[in-house]
Structures are given as C-alpha cells and as structure tokens.
C-alpha cells in the first residue's frame, strides 16, 4: 500500500500539500499492580493519504474508527507511534515542539463543540490575538486591530464583536469565532474535526456555506472529519472511509457516493436516513457492533460484519488497490472475476 | 376519540430574574392509537419539553403547566402524583436520547426491565426475570439469558438503546414517547434501531410520538409530522405531503438546509439554503408570527398579528399569513 500511495508526487507534477504515510497511533493500556502495559488500543493502524492544495479530503467513519485520532496526530496533539507526515515537502512528524512551532501556523483546527473550545474568560479579541502574537504576524497594535477586523469580516461577524465575551454568542456565532481563530495564522490547511456536527440544521447550513466560501476565497485545503455523510457529499472533493483504524476506501466524491467499491462504504451509505418519504432503497443493515480496536479481527477487519465475506477475508489482510482511476479500495472481492464481484458496477453517467 | 389529545399546552418556566420562559406556548395536537407522529424542530423549539410535559416530568416550580393533556379521555394534568405513577412506564413509556445516562449503572439489565413489571403487573422476581429475557429476545439481543444478569457498562451504545426499548415496551404501553432515540448512535447502529422500532410497532401496536431534529429519520419512520418553532406548532401534515409541498417558510427553509445523499450524482454542488438569523428569545412574549424575524416573506402584518393555524390543503395546517395566498396564485 505505502509504495503505491507514496509515489503520488512522482506520478503528478505538483507535490501534494500534505502527505501521510503509514501513520500509526497505538495507545498503551496500563493495568496490573505495577502499571505495566497489558495491551494496546490500535486506534490508527497504518493510514496513508494526501491532500492537495485547495482541496477538501473528508475522513468518514463511525465512532471509534480513529478519524479524530488521525487529526490529532497530524496536529501533534500527541506523538504518532510511527509513520511519516510530510507538509509541503518537509517531514514534520519527527520535529521537536520548538521546531514545530513556526510550522503550526500553517495548519489551523476547528473542533466540534464551540462551547468548550473557547476560553470563557477571554474576550474574542484576546482569543484571536493570541495566535497572531504567537506567530509574530503583527508588529504593533494598529496592525493587530487591522488583522482582527479582517478576520471578523471573513467569518461575517460584526467588527465590534471583538470586544465581547464568548458567552454572549450563540453556537453558530461561536463556531464562526473558532473558524476565525483557525484562520488567524494564515494557514494552508484547516482540520475540521466534526466542526458542524453539534449545530442545528439551519445554523449548520450557514457554517457549511461559510467554510466553502472561505476555501474558494483563500485557497485553503481542508481535512474534514465527519460522520455526517450527506454534509460530506455536499462539500468534499475526495473521501477516505475509515473502519477500525484503517482506511478501507479512498475515492473522489462522485465515485464514492455513486459506486462504492468497499462493502463497508456501501453499507454506510445505505444506512443514512434520507429525507424523502417512501424512497425505494436497498438497505444493508449490518449486524452486530464495531469490534474492539484493542483486539481487532484477523484478516480483513470488516469480515465479522461483512455480508460478502468469504474464507480468504478471515486470514489475509486486504491492501488498498486501485479499482477505478483515483478510487482505491481494500477488499478481496476485487480479486475475484467480475461476475462474482457484487461491487463491480460502475458509476452511472452524469445526469 | 384520539388516544392522546394535547390542547393548548403551555409549559412555562420561571427564571431566577423574575421573567418567564415560554418553552411551549399554546400547543395542540392529537395522536390516534397505533399511529406514529413525529415532532421536529431545532434545539430550544420546545419539542423535548412537550414530551416531558406529557409524562409530567417537569418539576413544578419552576415549571408551570396549563392547558389539557387528555390520555384516553383522562386529563393527565389533573391527576395526582400517585395516579400519574400508575401511568408512567405502564400505559405511557419513554425512550430517552442518551442510553448511557438513562440506565442505572449499579442495577443489572434484568432488574431494570423487571422493575416496571413488578410494580405495574405485580410479577414475582422470578416471573419478572423470565419476562425480561423474553423482552431482550424481542429487541434482538443475542444470548438474552446471559445478558439479563449483566450491567449497562458491559453493553455497547446500540445494545443499551435496545435495553431502553425493552424497558419501555415491557408493560405493553399504548403510547411510546421516543425523544431523539437514535441521535447519539452511529449510522449503522441507527439503521438497526430504526428497523427494530418499525418492526416492533407492527408487533406491539403502540402509538409512537417521535421527537427528533433529523428529517431523514422523520421521513423513514413517521406517518404524520408536527413542525415546531419557538414553542409553537407552525405546520402539521402527513409525512409525504409535508416533504412534497411544505407550506410554512420555516419548514421550507429546514428542508432546503439539509443536503441530500446522492446530490453529487445529479448536479454540481449548489449552495445550501440558509435560514438567516437566530431563534428568538422565549423570554419575551412574541407579538406576531414567531418566525417573522427570520422570514423572507415578512411584512408589517406578520410583526403584529400572530397567524392562526389554518388548513392550507386537506389535513395540512400551517400558521402563515402568506402560505395560502401563494397556493391560490399558483
């Protein structure tokens, strides 16, 4: 997998903005009298992907699949167990915290809950000024005020809102402040970790539109971590589907939603309730729960719930293989003759 | 006679600063036996307060309930606490959103399912446990005889929600109130629980009041929909009718704000419809239409006169001054 996916820059002229190669994060479980390590949670277990400049890659999957852990490992909120993270041609996973500091400003982050991610004792201007001062982006007070005003314009909040406190704002407005803070360092990449999941329907639409506008306006790349597939389909360029710490499928938006090549993606899509009464759809209801990442199943991690599993799935770990241009899936079904592969159908032509 | 008739329900809360929060302000609706009615709306629209009011779970004070909630002709608001206890978990039961916090961590699953059975139906401990095993089988939990002795922490989120459903259905209720039953669950687990609820509805025959903010869930499960905004009902219709031709500008806005799965196949990304502005504060009495401050069709009339709920199409009511005129013009 890593050989085929790492050669991205060799295959294309322009190198990607971010490249992640075989990223792993295993959390030790301590137990017993002496606090010895008794096992590991294999939260992220060999994940590779890339994001181009100005592109949105969405990371989707159910709770516990490791999608947030990927985001946090990229931000170095904890050190990855192994693997490489390359930002704009430079490896950043092995840098010290001090060396990392100037690079941090190139990656912004927006978290899920705008109520707990803003310090209630700081005014909006202090919240936003902190990164600006940290990265030395303003020489004096006048420059700082100018930057603050520009940020407020970008996220469409009134300029005088900078002197207010977080509790004076609604959830949607707070999320705008979080976005402004993520933009304060003039980043190339923004990681949105379930950034719209906690918001109400009408506010969610406002924030989704804002993120799309900002991306176009500023040429931002985005890693959009979400479990909401309809929102993802609406705003992404490419999608990576995770299951139990591994990417099972990566594809451009239309290919993934139109003709998924992994049984898990197919089931996930069919499980989403659609706001159309009486819509005739084939639903694949997966039985059972997601297995524990402490002791993941052998072979293909999805074989315990897969409706198409056969003997080989229990023993061999499937590698990501290209099934269509740009579409990669880790499934043994694609080694079978086409007639026996239930996922062989191709994308319907554009309407 | 309808199974449940809610008439002009007003649930107000006194705030510490002497004001009044009108969480539910004059809500009327009815539920027929065996019917599934969904109440949709955004946070703070009063949908959960409505469900708590039906079961009289609102602490008084600071809460204040007025109006009437007639269940099989009996006004629940006039019952004593003792009479109410005989109804809760027996004739009317409830499934809450958060299966982690609504189960008691120190009691076994069997004890929690058996509690209602022993209280309401006078079963012995052994009979209650046998019935608990039966209920776990009904909600599709594998190895029920073993699970019945386990504790909530030993179960996954989806399993816990199945246990909640087993508890709610143990006494064969006539009305089941499900307050965001799948919101905390993953999509594949949500699909399992929705399938289970549909299946059980046919087998048990209980009426369901489903409280949710997810229009997808509404479309899949409900027969009739009530849309709430700022404590009031703004629209009510059969589910197919509501999704096909929403009459109220708020409902139209809600439906436009939700991206549909499969959108990338039909067209290139278009912008989502936004509803500008914010939900109004419920602390002040709103003079005219509750939605006026965010409505694209707002006029002077909307600011001053609250629109009445009118039948805009057969069995389709909406509270808007302008919805009908449009229909005639079109």
Largest sheet of chain B: 8 strands, mixed
From the N-terminal CA to the C-terminal CA of chain A, the straight-line distance is 34 Å
Instruction: Tell me the total number of β-strands of chain A.
Output: 12
Q: How confident overall, as mean pLDDT of chain A?
A: 87
CATH class of the domain at 2-95 and 237-273 and 284-340 in chain A: Alpha Beta
Helix content of chain B: 25-40%
Q: Name the helix and strand elements of chain A from N-terminus to C-terminus, one letter apiece.
A: HHEEEHEEHEHHHEHEHEEHHHEE
The helix/strand class of chain A is alpha/beta
Bin the strand percentage of chain B.
15-25%
Q: Which residues of chain B sit in consecutive blocks of at least 5 with pLDDT less than 50?
A: none
pLDDT averaged residue by residue of chain B: 86
CATH superfamily of the domain at 2-95 and 237-273 and 284-340 in chain A: P-loop containing nucleotide triphosphate hydrolases
Q: From the alpha carbons, calculate the radius of gyration of chain A and give it in angstroms.
A: 21 Å
Fold blueprint:
The complex is a heterodimer of chains A (351) and B (330).
Chain A: H1 2-6, H2 8-11, E1 18-31, E2 36-51, E3 56-60, H3 67-74, E4 82-87, E5 90-91, H4 97-104, E6 107-110, H5 124-134, H6 141-154, H7 171-183, E7 189-193, H8 201-218, E8 221-226, H9 229-235, E9 238-243, E10 246-252, H10 253-258, H11 263-271, H12 311-315, E11 321-324, E12 327-329
Parallel strand pairs in A: 3-8, 3-9, 6-7, 7-8
Antiparallel strand pairs in A: 1-2, 1-4, 4-5, 9-10, 10-12, 11-12
Helix pairs in contact in A: 7-8
Chain B: E1 4-14, E2 20-31, E3 36-40, H1 47-54, E4 63-71, E5 74-75, H2 81-87, E6 92-95, H3 109-121, H4 125-138, H5 144-147, H6 157-169, E7 175-179, H7 187-204, E8 207-212, H8 215-221, E9 224-229, E10 232-238, H9 239-244, H10 249-257, H11 263-266, H12 300-304, E11 310-313, E12 316-318, H13 323-329
Parallel strand pairs in B: 3-8, 3-9, 6-7, 7-8
Antiparallel strand pairs in B: 1-2, 1-4, 4-5, 9-10, 10-12, 11-12
